[in-house]
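Quick start: load a record and inspect it. Here is histidine kinase:
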Amino acid sequence: MKVGNTMSISIRWRLVLMYVLMVVIVMMVSGTMIVLLVRSNEMESVQESIQLAVEAIKTTAFEDVDIDDIEDVKLKLSDVYEKYAALYKGKRVFLLDRTSRVVLPLSDAAKGLSFPTHQVMGAIEDGQHETYDKNRRLPGDDRKYIGYAENIKGSDGRVVYVVYVLGETTSVTNSIEKTIMVIISAAAVAILIAIVLGFIFSDFLTKPITALTVKARDMARGQLDKPIKVYANDEIGQLTKNFNRMAKSLNETLNEITSEKNKLEIVFKHMTDGILVFDKIGVMIHSNPASIDMLKLDRQISFQEVFNPYLEVSYNDLKNMVQEETILHVVIVENRYYSVYFAKFLDQHNEAVGLICVIQDITEHKKLEEMQKEFVANVSHELRTPLTTIKSYTETLLEGALEDSDIAVRFLEVINHESDRMTALVQDLLELSKLDNKQIKFAMNDINLENILEDSINKYRIHSEKKNQSLIYHKPNNTFRTIGDVNRIEQVIKNIISNAVKYSPEGAIIEISIEDQNKYVKVSIADNGMGISKDDLKRIFERFYRVDKARSREMGGTGLGLAIAKEIMEYHGGKILVDSEVGVGTTFELYFLNKQS
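Running the structure step on this input writes:
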């Protein structure tokens, strides 16, 4: 049986039991009063009857009778008994002397029988006892009687006889028994009716209570959207209405909480920052996937297990430090940098109940800082080298080298070359700065990409021939068009072809092709030069990065050409890819948006 049904039945039985007990108590009290009243009435009736019997004998049997003549008295008593036979039915009449002994038995009483009762002794003493003799029995007779006595006086005023009449109380007992049986029968019927009515009436009370019980169980299971039927407008009905309002309000509140919880869970799950939450004793109670991935967590469940490898501070000390402000630590995990912010989180009483830890990946920021430092160092180095050369050659000229015209001309040529290098470097830096700040305006037009490619190849063919290189162009059969700035696209193509010619040895083969790639037009520039290692290939588009720094400077490179080319390609919606193998060669692929797609 279900818990709700058990509770409902228990309440119903209690109500029925209370109702039945109330009926039983009422029946018992009223029945007792009825029995007592019937017994009192019956006893009064018997008492009146025996009193009348005594009065009849006293007033009739001893008129005109010689009380000393016992035979005459006996005869007279027999006449009275016969005359008032109905009155003496069920009674025993005795004529007693002054010693309470039977003088004249009537109704077959045994001679010599004595009745020294309160009534008899009172009559002998010429008085009257207020209480009737009760529960009197005669020899050989199991019936009970009550007795009443009055004296008979002689002419001299003395008591001669006592008339003692016993009235049978069997009728009283029978009447009481019948009354009790009627009361018991009525009580049984009343109890049966009370049980039936109790179940009917209790149903009005237990039915809404059962509904409330079922609803409470459903609420515990999270079902709050089904209102309870209101059966009446009484107190339970009002309770049901308030219960429905509470369930509705609670459902709305839970929906809001669930919605907010889902939002937070989705945010925590998909946010790139890591979140860890620790309770007041340092046990981890919440984490998101980002934090697990960042700190490489497996089964760590406490603060010490998580941060012992990275921090030299206990959880309690950290909590004390965080009471006033947020604490920041930087940890390194497998060559990645993470900033870890610790802050307290509060309960509804604004009391600190633990720490929340926010983890941010600052590896790229650190790399950017390193790149900035390296960039500054590279710029300084690139500028210092020609400046040192110019200064040293100028000092030499000032010290007298001007007198030798050949040396002076050679020195001035070096100074001019270094000045050109600095000018080119500064121009490239300015161009990169403008590209970064979106300050360069591109003249976007519909252009013939194949014409620009062929023109650039022709301009570098003379340089390749000087190194006995084969510059092979696989001319397409159709025309390829794109939207872009002619000068900037030509700048990118020339930079790649120039690098292929510069860094390929004599006799190398450089192949250039253009083809349709659906959304893009791909320009491939492949050489069989010295190639680039995998480590260098990752950084080839970084500013000032050179695969062979000494050789690059000798050839006049600034280390910014590929960085500028990448910026220009991305601005045009394209991309630049490179594939290389040391000792085999390098292939650059330029992807331009295809206007015809």
